[in-house]
Amino acid sequence: MATFLYKLGRLSFRRRHFAALIWVALLTLAGVGAASAPAAGNSSFSIPGTEAQKAFDLLEQRFPGASADGATARVVFKAPSGEKMTDPGNKATVQETVKELSDGSEVTRVTDPYQAKAVSKDGTVAYAQVSYKVSGMELDDAAKDALQDSAQDARKAGLTVEIGGDALQAVPHTGSSEIIGIAVAAVVLVITFGSLVAAGLPLLTALVGVGIGVSAITALASALDLGTTTSTLAMMIGLAVGIDYALFIVSRYRAELAEGRDREEAAGRAVGTAGSAVVFAGLTVVIALVGLSVVNIPMLTKMGIAAAGTVAIAVLIALTMIPALLGYAGRRVKPAGEKGKLLGRASKKPERPNLGTRWASFVVRRPVAVLLLGVIGLGAAAVPAGSLELGLPDDGSQPTSTTQRRAYDLLSEGFGPGFNGPLMVVVDAKNSDDPKAVFGDAADEIKGLDDVVTVTPPAPNKAGDTATITVIPDSKPSSVTTENLVHGIRDAGADIKADTDANVLVTGSTAMNIDVSEKLNDALVPYLVLVVGLAFLLLIVVFRSILVPLKAALGFLLSVMAALGAVVAVFQWGWLSDLMGVEQTGPVMSMMPIFMVGVVFGLAMDYEVFLVTRMREAYVHGEKPAQAIVTGFRHGARVVTAAAVIMMAVFAGFIGSSESMVKMIGFGLAIAVFFDAFVVRMAIVPAVLALLGRKAWWLPKWLDRALPNVDVEGEALRPGSAPADTDHNLVRA
């Protein structure tokens, strides 16, 4: 591995024009593809294998033309104080609004509140439901403007009018904080390298990699049904790892220059050693992201694969474009320890041990105290995770400043909290002798269940073999009581199936959310086993040790649990919610735990590989275990710290997103990187290695013989072992 990458690095340095041209061409090609591709609509959300999805598919088949996946809007009216919606003036205003709403070309149906009996018992609240041909993300601006204009006209007449549903769904934006994150990364790079040129290389290559990845996703979005969150996630992770991978190779290049090697040789050795770590770190991230496909939720699978593709591009750019740009930079990239004009020249006085060396020496002397403090601290941060509540966002989780949230509250006030989460029961009686009787029996059975407020009469299709029944719960959509009602209807459906051979299925957004949460919970353990297992095997090959990969996996579990605890504290409990821009607290999104497990594991292994390979390299080259730890920190601690700060800054930049899912992911990943880099990798890892001593690097002889030698330490590049073309490797540039 090291020899191959060494040759690749030297080739890219020598043929820098060719290497740079390839990446510029790929960026141009991806950009042209993105610009000419048709605009992508909202990604379809399907959950294969769930009852809610089966019912939805059955509706599409048995009720053709119903636009079951089309956008909906609930225009909610409230009468002025002391008046009712049934008063002649208010009724005339509502009917005029309904008429205006019906004029849109994309509107399929508008219900009149007075004909549909959509007026509350006290007469103060009424609503009209608008159904559209296309989804909320595909709805054109003219239709949205017409919807809002109609509501405004009714407001002028004195009514309170709010709009719920997904018709006003907007494309999420990340805000200026994303740019701030990149700016913080730039400052950290300048401080780390002491040179604008050296600091600019990781930023430039990361932006090129993200540009190619996001442009490719945009170009394929329509064909592959990719949603807007897909490119946001790819950008988030691509920027973070792209900067980090380039940072490690540039840092190693400067270290090789400081040892007296010429620039081409230094580039080759940097790619051969740090590049090997980049390859394996990238592989762990790719494994974690692609492994999300085991959950069998198409949206999550697409997000994972797209982000993994961007990570793969970041690895390839670090191995080829960075050495090419180092060739262009020439003497403007200084050897390690020699600062450019920006920060002044290094003093000729002997340098005192750097902070990484001093910290590692302290940990080696006090491993038990450091280990206990780190574990207890992370354990305390993880305590809130015990109160984790999962769910998917609805209008009730929107900020109170939005019309969607105000419409949600008005409907709860007028019709009860369960009205915002109606259950759609689909009765398939195609194989029954008397479908009409089955429909009636199903409705009567549901009426007898607890927590049921209203059951509408069955509405059969034209063929008369399938009917829909709307059930209004007494509890809000995200409550445990509503979840129990869904299971109760399904249990009753099993009895009906046994008696009449008819299928009773429950769907709707509330039932779909419940099914998604259960599916994600069921997939978490298999996913952990797959991803952690594959990465464990990979790290055994890299470190040629059993205990080091085991320690890495256990440290990851600590950091991810602590990060989940922080997410619960902020987004569920409301701690620091104003600082984080969280206007409405509520359940943590169902996919957050499994997503954090995947992404954080991959990123955690980045720092494990980068830091511990330096220790492994020193140990293999003859140093004692304790001294190897100090050596690893002397060479790697500053760079790992810079990489972690950069990654935290990039992730934190997405906290400014208007999309609650992106905001939560940005915060979760940023805090997870903090816990993993500064507590686990910088404190717990050296403490454990100090306690294990030589046992840390133990590997059974039979396994040592069976494993391939990937040579991450660059042993083949040492004097006497280097390739034949390295005779000039000690000539100073």
TrEMBL record:
GO terms for cellular component: plasma membrane. It is found in: Cell membrane. Belongs to the resistance-nodulation-cell division (RND) (TC 2.A.6) family. MmpL subfamily. Residues 196-328 form the SSD domain. This is MMPL family transporter. The chain crosses the membrane at residues 179-199, 206-224, 230-250, 271-297, 303-329, 368-388, 524-547, 554-576, 588-607, 639-658, 664-692. InterPro entries: MMPL_dom (IPR004869), Mycobact_MmpL (IPR050545), SSD (IPR000731). It holds the Pfam family MMPL. Its main location: membrane. The keyword Ion transport does not apply. Residues 1-39 form the signal peptide. Keywords: Cell membrane, Membrane, Signal, Transmembrane, Transmembrane helix. It comes from Streptomyces tuirus. It is a multi-pass membrane protein.
